[in-house]
Amino acid sequence: MRAEFQPVVNALSQHIIGKQQQIKLALTCLLANGHLLIEDLPGMGKTTLSHSLARAFGMDFSRIQFTSDLLPSDMLGVNIYNTQQNAFQFRPGPVFSQLVLADEINRASPKTQSALLEAMEEQQVSIDGVTHPLPQPFFVIGTQNPSHQAGTYPLPESQLDRFLMRISLGYPSWEAEKAMLEASSIRRNPDIETCVETQSLVTMQDAVNKVHCSDAVINYILKLVALSRDDIGYPNPLSPRASKALMQASKAWAYLHDRPYVVPEDVQAVFVSVAEHRLRSQQDERNQDSILSRRLLESVDPLAA
Amino acid sequence: MKAGRLPIAGNRNSLIIALVFAVLSISLYSPLMLWVLLLALCAVTVRVALYLGWYHHAPNHRTVNLLAILSASTLAWFSSELGFLLSMVNLLVMACSLKLMLLKNRRDFLQLFICGLFILGCGYIFTQTLFSALFYLAVLVALLIAQFGAYAPRMPLKQQLRQLLTLCVQASPIALVLFIVLPKLPPMWQMPAAKSAATGLSEKVTPGDIARLSQSSDLVFNATFNNALPDMKDRYWRALTLEHFDGKSWQVSPLRKNTREKQQWMNMEFAPAVSGPAYQYQVIAEPSGQRWLYAMDLAVPGDSASRAAIWQSNDYLLIAHQPLMSKWAYQVNSYPHVPLNQASFPFDQRINLQLPDNGNPKTRQWVSQLRQRYPEDGALLNALMDHFANAGFRYTLEPPVMPIDPVDTFLFEHKSGFCSHYASAMAYALRLAGIPARMVTGYHGGSLLTDQVLSVHQYDAHAWIEAHLGDSGWVRFDPTSVVAPARIRFGLEQAINESGESYTRNPFYGLKQFALLAELNHLFANIDYLWSRWVLGFNANRQQDLFQWLLGSLTPLRLTLLFLAVLALIAGLLALYFLPGWRKPARPKHVRLYQQAEVLVSTHTGQARNNQPVGAYCAKVSPLLPETAAQQFKTLCNAFEVIEYKSSPPNTSALLAMRRAQKKLFRALKHSHSSVA
Amino acid sequence: MNTLKTRWQQQSLRWLDDRIPARTKHTLNLRSIFIFPSKFGLSYLLMCGCLFLLGTNYQNNLMLLLCYFLLALLLVCLFKSYLNFACLTLTVDPIQSVFAGNNAVLSIQIQAANVRPGTSGGHDDKFPQGQLHFRWLRQKSMFNCDLNQAERSIRLPYITQRRGVYPLPRVTCISEYPLGLYRCWTHLDFDQRLVVYPAPVPCEMQLESRSQEAGKNATSQPGHDDFYSLRPFVPGEPLNRVAWKNVAKGADWVSKSFSQQQSLGGFLRLNLSSRDIEKELGKLAFQVLQLSDNQVPFGLILGSKCVEPGSGERHKQTCLLALARYGTLESAV
């Protein structure tokens, strides 16, 4: 692993114990300049993870709790008439932060959801014909609760596609939870210090783009994608956006592991988080976790030309 | 295709076919008349101009038709002079030139292509060297490219070439099999022959003519001996008997010619009885445009194919039924110990005592004196030979001109001359003495190409005499052998050296100055010989030999089996070319190396890779492998990853590392295997 | 003589139907491909024969070798030709209906049958090469498609004269790659039915209303076409509907509303008493187009057949199809 990230992972691991893999995936997502969807039950540490990430990279953080009555303007901001200056003045909403935690994204109305997703895609917000660029880096962590679906507006496939990765934290192991309990009873968790400057994060994101992705790896990605399209066992084939996301995430994973080129292991490491939520259809049983993407991985040989 | 109007400007295929046509016509410069060649080049120029867009309209039909009538009548005018074959070749080239001018649509193009192929084939009538074969092969490929381009016009030229060459390479083995196996038919009818301007012996010899031949180093024939070679001094290759003397020149007796024709007409072939040891050899004769062949002593055709193509004349010569228009191989057996006494003596005597009515008075006088002194034939002959040996005669390549009474002048004045001078003088003298004698021309000697192969060149041309001595029949005498023994023992080169003549006019000058050149020359001669023997000389007979060698005996069953096998072979070749699955896409070297190692490792550990990436698999099997092997496998996998995923240009050092690691891995695993066992 | 010819043609068509059944996607195989030496191939063979005679008579081995090489090339080309043609897959897009007199266009996509997208390593040797020629069965005019181009499809025009519903004839596809020695061809039926509408004949509009509904057949529906009225601006309405002229005069914000005439129950009726029914049908086609363009609902009465009133693209198609089928055997269906 790259030296710069070791302290980040260490610091985060102190707060979210026993979830190194997820932490690394979250970092990858951040490096790949994508957005992260965390699907988990409440109380699993979603907020802690986002908060700690923001701290570790020195990003300003805001949290939007999505509810069914949340309006797009509540999130994006509004133009307010300033009587003194006799002009409209833009008051930015909570989305104007470098790290946005969109909590329970599936509880908001589709209108609000799509407003956020548009902002995520465009990296800017247009209100009353005026375009306001979002801060850089801009990283959205959406969370959703897989159970308790009553009264929610599940994200449609097209919108799920906008999230580069989907991870779920899951229950901690016995030891991890025990350690957590012991730690909390002894002392308050120390605040996380900034390990990587925000500005250097931007240069890292640029560096990720320069990671070499050989023909063999590109062919591998294409074969994975092609199989999902040819085989009728996959209800939602992977889109070109998905293959792009897969390559970007693989590059970021390779970068995170301090390798200037991508190997198929990188693709495999990120594949489940990148592809599973795109492959699944809405009606799928939630408990068959990552079965589709694993099957896909097993049926494609990274080697054969 | 009906819808085939070719675009004129910028059509690459019509340009290629025009250029191919130009090259073909130029290569045929000798059989073509100059104006036909010019016409062809004009047509090509028109084509090139159209291609480059200098003109936009091809010459119209009326102009070309007019030109056609004009050229056709001119050709008709010359045709009697040219002979049938050359007229036809000229006609073909002329017609193609006119067509080329008019080339407008696909149909014209296809006609041109067919004609081009045929002209190319005709080219082989005139030259058959290895070089020309290769040259015409290149022309053929160019012609095919033009044709290919007409059917895949948008394909890049490079790809066209690749596709076409693939087709050609696929076709060649089949062509070769067909060539070897298909029966070699005898000629079905007499073909018109081209008049040749080849140098060589002629049917009329004025002493001194042969000296001219000594300037030429052209090959005359190669002889491949089955058993021992005759000694240098016994290598007298008879070609012609000259039995008519007019005081100056010797020529083939008209009477002899007449009789031979009559006999051929009545199919009364001379068949001398032969016995005793024989030299068996195959002669590959260069084209001479003549019908006489070369053989030693009493020679009879050596096999049925040769027998069918050769007429044995009763002056012990071998005459081919067809003039030698191309290289031709025939088999001969020569019996050195059988006397030439089987032909009708009265006839031979009648034509071989013929003398000119007057001229050469001194010689006549001298011979009558001699005859008085030596009434016996043998003694007279010895005396004559002695005279040549001891009376101060000199052998030279540059004899003085002797226009009047040449024998007198030679014998008593200059006393220097070439072989034909001696032969002429001696034969004349013998006839004056009442002994039937004739001049024989041919070649003497020859240089060894390989142990079993003699090459005879034009400078080996020689003349000697035969005298008829009672029961012994025709006996060979060579006055040159006593004048210049080196000529007979070592060849012309040595003889010239001894005579001290300047090197500038001699054929060996230059070539043999440098060892390397000589070596090269020898090499080329060897290649040419092999080419002649195995390609040009592959006749029905050789084919039969080949079959015999393959099958043992030639029973109908075996022959049937052979042909079935050949069919199967061709079918197999086609299957190899075209059945899918044979040609797997070539995998890169590093992938092959890795996969070999993987197979070994998976059989050793019992763990298949199951679509895992290389690195993950390596980590998985490492604990199951012996330590050294695991280490080597890891090195191999790392190098593989570097090549496959890191660098885009081929990384030779990593490949080398892979190869080394693979070798060590194999060794380590083998070792562990044996230790387990 | 002529009947014999048509009999023969029908017979061969039936044979073809049996051998190459109609499909929208054809992958060429042994069953559907015919291959025979072309005229040029035969003359090539003749030339080889001449070379053989010449070579034999001159006992010239090189000429014989050349002859055998050309023959071997002929043999190799047989397979090359066939395999090149056999890896084609031809697919058609559904053919669009046209008005009589216009050209219908059959668009054929050409793909390689056996080349999977993942397996081709970039070079195109596996893809069929050379020119393909297309024409309608038993028609002269030929259309070419070069497979070495990026655009691997061909648009084959089909001239229509009379209205009606026709099955498209077979398409003949020919390839002579690589050396023109062989002609590979096939006759494909792409299972397309071409609907030819009557050619529109300009005329007066003859929309007759259904008598019992007369008087209440017009109402107004909000729409886009005609300006209808102004009403107070409701926030959230599109700004381009605001009547800026009024706002500029200092009045309250108002927005324009539009309406479109919605006529119900208009009927077009075929004049059965006319002599030239085809012309009447053409007039009806013209009116159908006009009414559809103006989004006026209408129905169509063709003798016993009746199309209920409606509007929109689909309705237009239905009406035109009814016109095309009128009086043909298929109108009963």
Automatic annotation (TrEMBL), chain A:
Pfam family membership, one: AAA_lid_2
Q: Which UniProt keywords apply?
A: ATP-binding, Nucleotide-binding
Q: What SUPFAM superfamilies does this protein's entry cite?
A: P-loop containing nucleoside triphosphate hydrolases
Q: Which residues form the ATPase AAA-3 domain?
A: 35-165
What positions does the domain ChlI/MoxR AAA lid occupy?
A: 238-290
One example of the protein's molecular function in GO is: ATP hydrolysis activity
Q: Which InterPro entries match?
A: ATPase_AAA-3 (IPR011703), CbbQ/NirQ/NorQ/GpvN (IPR050764), ChlI/MoxR_AAA_lid (IPR041628), P-loop_NTPase (IPR027417)
The UniProt family comment states: Belongs to the MoxR family.
What is the designated name of this protein?
Answer: MoxR family ATPase
Q: What is the native source organism of this protein? A: Alteromonas aestuariivivens
UniProtKB/TrEMBL annotation, chain B:
What InterPro entries is this protein classified in? Answer: Bact_TGase-like, Papain-like_cys_pep_sf, TgpA_N, Transglutaminase-like
What stretch or stretches form a coiled coil here?
A: none
Q: Does the keyword Transmembrane apply?
A: yes
Q: What is this protein called?
A: DUF3488 domain-containing protein
Transmembrane feature ranges? 12-29, 35-55, 62-78, 109-127, 133-152, 164-182, 559-579
Which is a Pfam family this sequence falls into?
A: TgpA_N
Domain Transglutaminase-like, by residue range, is 411-481
UniProt keywords (A-Z) are: Membrane, Transmembrane, Transmembrane helix
Automatic annotation (TrEMBL), chain C:
- What are the transmembrane regions? 33-55, 62-83
What are the record keywords, sorted? Membrane, Transmembrane, Transmembrane helix
Name the UniProt record assigns to this protein: DUF58 domain-containing protein
From what organism does this protein derive? Alteromonas aestuariivivens
